[in-house]
């Protein structure tokens, strides 16, 4: 961006088509951004559930890999900026990296097709290594693509405007932000619905291929739209790598300072002044401005650490809640749509009502103050998340600890039974009933006595497990069956049947026929009213059951099944449905989005306004890097600081952010706002440079070919 005059000349010579005062080419860029953000946020919305329930990773691993991916997405903008500025230019960089991005999305979608390795056709992949390898390759390509084009697209949009269109340029950036949130809103609504469908060749499973396939298709559309506008764009040539020039200047100052560390050399006002021997005053002053802002960035990653957990921890939290809003059912991953909805409404409200009102009241709400308040809002959001978690924990079953075992007894015998466990606990259980709940035992070897019949049997329970003791019509063959000991996945419901009828039964939803006296394996059913048909070939009957979210039931089939037309089937609730409503997450979403508007939108504007004209890209990349570091912090905390309770982890994050916001407010207090253009003009006049000459010098420095040799010579000369 140092050769602005050249760009301006190019812009002026290229006549661009206009519509309502805007360059027509902008339309292609805005639609391209809409599709790209749809693709990115759509894929991200279902990613953590894919890790958790397709690759069967635990919560911590799923969260860690999710954040590692987001971190990579915000580290790659540096690479994109370097490629665009020093080699390919923005246009070609966007095209090439979009191809990489689209390929990544396709690879990711392919990795989610369970049928490709489901050789035994049981509905689960048989070669997890292949699925993991493909999805990791896909994610790396996506991160290279999305991060690489991120600093280029908005800047390329800005390049399309001519000098007389500065008002339209401002509108463009607002529309651009709305497009980001419009695209992400649609995709976070749609992809979870696609994911919740059932699809497959051999077995019907959650439709991850569709949920990842649609974002892949949108990325291809994004690329096609961008290429279609090709003939209309103002394309500027690579301008020289400013990031590299800044690094070289800083590196030289440090090296030179180190060489002159003895007390014989007088101190300089600022350590960057040690670059004076090689770099001109203007570049050094610009680097100083950038460093001042970068220093302020140090505490910022903590905000992103909390902000980006919306997509991981908060989505997992929603899976333990009820999404029944009566008029519609909300999937856990769809809760994230609350963020773009609030952004679309809050940005105009803040800009037009709240900020002007604060100004009217005579209060100074400077950008850095807004950012501090934004951090405090995010911290409050996590306090809310902790409170919601405490409510959820109250409704969760008491699962056994690793040294305990839990036992439930089901009586399929034709009369009531007195069941004594280890000569201690006696349970009176009616026919076709179960014990009231699970009995928790601190030992595993047990004796079960059926008092009326005199039958006694020894069993060995699973430590840390939940089991059901089935007493069939012939009690002497009573047996144990292992139960689930966590909430069923994705808010679904686990159901199983005990066949008390006299012959084999075929039951819809079950994989195979059910032998008499046997208990089936679990099958998962979605929320809503589900119909089950039971048949033995000759006769059949059906019954319906309404399910909520995250429950588990054992259905007891009596010997009188067909004579009572399925009405005598008993439902035993093993795990109660989620009862805390997802609407309780809305306050935390509201607070974090208010935080985002105050922090992220203001931070972006601040980074722009405080950066010298030719170094806006440096600060853009720096700003996105704070997001990357934030995600790395989540990784570290999730891996190292495993807290026993989720609510405690939320409170830990909230307190860390409050502490960081205090540090940030102190740093902000000492920051003086500058007008980079004014500072630059002052230095130019001090140097007595004509702007043109000065710019040429700067460009020369950046394209400096014999950097190190020259550097050495100059240092030697200074010494002499
Ligand atoms: N509000 C977000 C979009 C979003 C949508 C759905 C779920 C979560 C987030 C937004 O506007 N993002 C912008 C700005 C941004 C935010 C964080 C890190 C980098 C950039 C975007 O460009 O994606």
UniProtKB/TrEMBL annotation:
Keywords: Cell membrane, Glycoprotein, Membrane, Peptide transport, Protein transport, Symport, Transmembrane, Transmembrane helix, Transport. It catalyses: L-leucyl-L-proline(out) + H(+)(out) = L-leucyl-L-proline(in) + H(+)(in); a dipeptide(out) + H(+)(out) = a dipeptide(in) + H(+)(in); carnosine(out) + H(+)(out) = carnosine(in) + H(+)(in); L-phenylalanyl-L-phenylalanine(out) + H(+)(out) = L-phenylalanyl-L-phenylalanine(in) + H(+)(in). It is found in: Apical cell membrane; Cell membrane; Membrane. One of its GO terms (molecular function) is symporter activity. Residues 693-720 have a biased composition (Basic and acidic residues). The chain crosses the membrane at residues 68-88, 94-116, 128-149, 169-195, 207-229, 289-307, 370-390, 618-638, 650-674. Electrogenic proton-coupled amino-acid transporter that transports oligopeptides of 2 to 4 amino acids with a preference for dipeptides. Transports neutral and monovalently charged peptides with a proton to peptide stoichiometry of 1:1 or 2:1. Primarily responsible for the absorption of dietary di- and tripeptides from the small intestinal lumen. Mediates transepithelial transport of muramyl and N-formylated bacterial dipeptides contributing to recognition of pathogenic bacteria by the mucosal immune system. This is Solute carrier family 15 member 1. It comes from Phoxinus phoxinus. The lineage of its organism: Eukaryota, Metazoa, Chordata, Craniata, Vertebrata.
């Amino acid at each position: 961006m140092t050769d602005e005059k050249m760009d301006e000349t190019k812009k002026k010579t290229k006549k661009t088509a206009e519509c309502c005062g805007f360059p027509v080419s902008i339309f292609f860029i805005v639609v391209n951004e809409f599709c790209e953000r749809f693709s990115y946020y759509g894929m991200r919305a279902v990613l953590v559930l894919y890790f958790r329930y397709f690759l069967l990773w635990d919560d911590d691993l799923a969260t860690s890999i999710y954040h590692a991916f987001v971190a990579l997405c915000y580290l790659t903008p540096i690479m994109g900026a370097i490629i665009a500025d020093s080699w390919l230019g923005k246009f070609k960089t966007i095209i090439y990296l979009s191809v990489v991005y689209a390929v990544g999305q396709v690879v990711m979608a392919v990795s989610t097709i369970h049928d490709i390795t489901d050789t035994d056709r049981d509905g689960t992949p048989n070669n997890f290594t292949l699925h993991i390898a493909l999805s990791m390759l896909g994610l790396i390509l996506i991160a290279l693509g999305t991060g690489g084009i991120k600093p280029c697209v908005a800047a390329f949009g800005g390049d399309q405007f001519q000098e007389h269109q500065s008002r339209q340029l401002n509108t463009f950036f607002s529309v651009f932000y709305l497009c980001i949130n419009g695209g992400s809103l649609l995709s976070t609504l749609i992809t979870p619905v696609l994911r919740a469908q059932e699809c497959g060749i051999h077995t019907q499973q959650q439709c991850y291929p569709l949920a990842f396939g649609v974002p892949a298709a949108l990325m291809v559309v994004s690329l096609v739209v961008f290429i279609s506008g090709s003939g209309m764009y103002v394309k500027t040539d690579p301008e020289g790598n400013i990031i590299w020039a800044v690094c070289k200047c800083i590196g030289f100052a440090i090296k030179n300072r180190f060489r002159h560390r003895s007390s014989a050399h007088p101190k300089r006002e600022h350590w960057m002044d040690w670059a004076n021997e090689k770099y001109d005053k203007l570049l050094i002053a610009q680097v100083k401005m950038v460093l001042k802002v970068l220093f302020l960035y140090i505490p910022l990653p903590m905000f992103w650490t909390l902000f980006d957990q919306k997509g991981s921890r908060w989505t997992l939290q929603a899976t333990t809640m009820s999404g029944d809003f009566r008029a519609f059912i909300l999937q856990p991953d769809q809760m994230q749509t609350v963020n773009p909805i609030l952004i679309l409404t809050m940005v105009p409200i803040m800009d037009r009502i709240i900020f002007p009102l604060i100004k009217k009241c005579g209060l100074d709400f400077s950008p850095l103050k807004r950012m501090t308040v934004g951090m405090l809002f995010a911290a409050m959001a996590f306090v809310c998340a902790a409170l919601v978690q405490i409510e959820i924990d109250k409704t969760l079953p008491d699962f056994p600890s690793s040294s305990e075992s839990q036992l439930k007894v089901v009586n399929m015998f034709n009369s009531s039974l007195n069941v004594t466990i280890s000569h201690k606990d006696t349970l009176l259980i009616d026919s076709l009933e179960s014990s009231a709940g699970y009995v928790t035992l601190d030992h595993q070897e047990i004796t079960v006595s059926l008092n009326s019949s005199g039958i006694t049997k020894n069993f060995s329970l699973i430590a840390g497990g939940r089991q059901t003791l089935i007493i069939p019509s012939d009690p002497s063959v009573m047996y144990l069956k292992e139960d689930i000991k966590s909430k069923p996945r994705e808010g679904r419901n686990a159901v199983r049947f005990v066949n008390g009828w006299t012959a084999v039964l075929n039951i819809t939803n079950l994989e195979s026929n059910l032998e008499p006296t046997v208990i089936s394996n679990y099958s998962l059913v979605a929320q809503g009213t589900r119909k089950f048909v039971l048949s033995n070939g000759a006769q059949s009957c059906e019954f319906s059951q309404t399910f909520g979210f995250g429950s588990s039931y054992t259905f007891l089939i009596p010997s009188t099944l067909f004579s009572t037309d399925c009405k005598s089937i008993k439902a035993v609730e093993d795990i109660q449905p989620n009862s805390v409503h997802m609407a309780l997450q809305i306050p935390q979403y509201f607070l974090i989005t208010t935080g985002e508007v105050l922090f992220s939108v203001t931070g972006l504007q601040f980074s722009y306004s405080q950066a010298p004209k030719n170094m806006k890209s440096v600060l853009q990349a720096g700003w996105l890097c704070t997001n990357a570091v934030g995600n790395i912090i989540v990784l570290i905390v999730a891996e190292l600081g495993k807290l026993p309770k989720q609510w405690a982890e939320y409170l830990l994050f909230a307190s860390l952010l409050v502490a960081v916001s205090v540090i940030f407010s102190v740093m902000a207090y000492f920051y003086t706002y500058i007008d980079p253009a004014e500072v630059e003009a002052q230095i130019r006049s001090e140097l007595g440079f004509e702007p043109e000459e000065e710019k040429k010098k700067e460009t020369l420095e950046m394209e400096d070919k014999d950097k190190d040799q020259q550097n050495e010579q100059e240092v030697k000369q200074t010494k002499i």
